[in-house]
Every structure is written in structure tokens, then in C-alpha cells.
Amino acid sequence: MGLVIDYIISLTHLYGLVHNGKVAEIYSMQNDENVGTADMDDRAKSNVEELRKNFVELHGDYFVHEAIMEFDEFEVELAKRQGKPFYIPDKKELLKYKDDFYFERTKEYHALKKYVQQELLDGDARKAEELCADIHGECEFSFSLDHIFRPFKTAGVEFENQKQVEEVMQLVMDLSNNVRLWENNGFTPRELHNQVERPMLNPLPDEASKAESGREQTPSVSKKIGRNEPCPCGSGKKYKKCCGA
């Protein structure tokens, strides 16, 4: 029973809100025990206090982080997730999210931390970690210049020149594109773009034809063309001496 509750807590922390059916699906996929939605609901109701200690509230068929319920934003947050796939980490990584303060430290995070530590904080690793964790938190819920620079101001960081500002902004933007977001069902903006948006883009005509045949193709002809007329391929030659040959 404890592992089921761990899954509820971990997935709520990862997604912000999650249907009990999705929790049952992921749990059953990663464990030998097959748990249905009714059983999942019963176990959750028997452990309400444990869930609340871990910032998880019950709302109908959903498990919802208390931060969403506190501001009465369930419907708004639910709408943001419609039609988006779910990022599902492996079991070991998933259960790390039981800690509400856990987040994935990506290479972009480490790049920002290294810069901040070496260039802005005179090598202070502890302060660099604290500052970058705060910046990561800002990226999880918003991305604006005012919000992003707020942790730097709080930490008493003063930029020496415009070049430093621009370098930090680029590092922060790289980080923000690789932060796991509630509204993306755990996917980062970059992952969601690559998985959902990019495949929906139509290739350019010449790229499509190359992919289909492995070589350049001449345009199809939809009407009869005179042998002495300009070739429709745009070569500038007469049709009889170009594609008509």
C-alpha cells in the first residue's frame, strides 16, 4: 500500500494534477501489481492525511497539488494540459519526485550554476546552488525579466557589465527550455516541441520529394504542354529540350 501512495504523491508533484486513472495506469505499468481506478481511489481516501502532509489534495477523480487548490486554479490548470502527452520517467527517477523540492538538474542547470559560481559569486558553490535553485523555481512557473532577475537581486548579485547580463540571460533561457513543467504534464518546452509540434510541421516541397525518392524529381505536369513552350521546371529551356526529352 505504501508504494501506491508514493506514486500518487510523486506523480502529483511531477504533474501538478493527475487523474487517478493515469496514476493507476503508470503504477500498473511499472509494477507487478495491477491496480484499478476504484482501488486507487479507495487507497487514497484511506491515506488522506498522509497525502495532505505531502501537499496532495483530493478533488473529484484527481490528485491535485495544494498550490493549485490554494489559488482555486484547478479548472484553469486542467485546461492547460488538454491534449498534451505525459512524460513518464522510469520508476527510480519517478519516485524521487516524492520530495516536493526535487527537480531534475539538467546540463543546462549545471552550465548556469558553473557560470554563476565562477563569474558572479567568487567560487561559492553553496550560494550558487541556492541561487540557481531559485531561478529554476521561477522558470517552473513564469519566465519574465523581472521574475528571473529577482533571485539575483535577493542574493545581492551585481553585474559588472552588459556582457554578463547577456550571458546570464542566454543561460537562463537555455535552462527555461529544459525545465519540466506542470502545464506540459512533466515535459520540458523543448521536449514537447520536438514530440508534438515539430512532427506536425509539413516539410518543404523539395524536402518531401527527396525523402520520397532519394533524388530530385521534376514537377508533375497537369496539362499538355507544347514542345516549344518554356519548360514548367523553370530551367529556361524549351520543354522539348528539357523535361519533354
From TrEMBL:
InterPro entries named among the record's database cross-references: SEC_C_motif (IPR004027)
Residues in the signal sequence: none
Stretch list, region Disordered: 193-245
Stated name of the protein: Preprotein translocase subunit SecA
Organism encoding this protein: Virgibacillus siamensis
